[in-house]
Design brief:
9 helices, 66% helix, mainly alpha, 0% strand, Glycerol uptake facilitator protein, globular
Length: 244
């Protein structure tokens, strides 16, 4: 179990450091219009690449969940034991927070770096209403997080099914997470992962922390719905395999 939890810690660290790091350090590098900045497309791809590479590196150790909503969804789908939920979630949240802390130290080395707890998307935080990059409402934010996390679980469970082509699951899952970000960055700055949301919010505090309830409740609800649906749909097997 210690090795599995260590893998979840490291994998979630990698997801937050790579995905949120791309948003904080590289998305707008050089200012608006600078061709060196990677923008929304680059950030979306970075999140997908972290899951793809992390799943190939660590999936055989822990199942490479890297996300409490994925752990809940795999439990609902009959692939993960309930007794391991809390340890996995703690390891994932600690990994995300450690990554956010180190990223904050790196970003703080730039003379122009500052965080505004009242600004949408500051330090890659998630939010709704005034904290949404596009000003989307709490209802819109909740719905997009539920729907996208549910579909994420369907992709994860389908790609890791014993009848799916072997060895390709991390590619499908990484591309799914890229697509999810392309859809929802304007709405909530994209969570679908309570640990990811918590890590960066803890560095900013203020409003991002007060809005964390949505980024725990909606992704977990979506994960549960996706897991239950695929269990019904896919004649699933009982094991702990899964990535995300």
């Amino acid at each position: 179990m210690i090795k599995r939890l260590s893998a979840e810690f490291i994998g979630t660290f990698w997801l937050v450091f790579g995905g949120c790091g791309s948003a904080v350090l590289a998305a707008n590098f050089g200012g608006d219009g600078n061709p060196l900045g990677i923008g929304l497309l680059g950030v979306s791809l970075a999140f997908g690449l972290t899951v793809l590479t992390g799943a190939y590196a660590l999936g055989h150790i822990s199942g490479a969940h890297f996300n409490p909503a994925v752990s809940f969804g795999l439990w609902a789908g009959g692939r993960f034991p309930a007794k391991d939920l809390l340890p996995y979630i703690v390891a994932q949240t600690l990994g995300a927070t450690a990554a956010a802390f180190i990223l904050f130290q790196i970003a703080n080395g730039s003379p122009g770096f500052a965080v505004d707890p009242a600004a949408a998307g500051t330090f890659a935080t998630n939010g709704y209403d005034a904290m949404s990059p596009g000003g989307y409402s709490v209802a819109s934010g909740f719905l997009v997080e539920v729907v996208l996390t549910a579909f994420f679980l369907v992709v994860i469970m389908g790609a890791t099914h014993n009848r799916a082509p072997a060895g390709f699951a991390p590619i499908a899952i990484g591309l799914a997470l890229t697509l999810i970000h392309l859809i929802s960055i304007p709405v909530t700055n994209t969570s679908v992962n309570p640990a990811r949301s918590t890590g960066v919010a803890m560095m900013v505090m203020g409003t991002p922390v007060s809005q964390l309830w949505l980024f725990w409740l909606a992704p977990i609800l979506g994960g549960l719905l996706g897991g239950v649906f695929y269990k019904w749909l896919g004649h699933d097997r009982p094991d702990i395999v899964g990535n995300g």
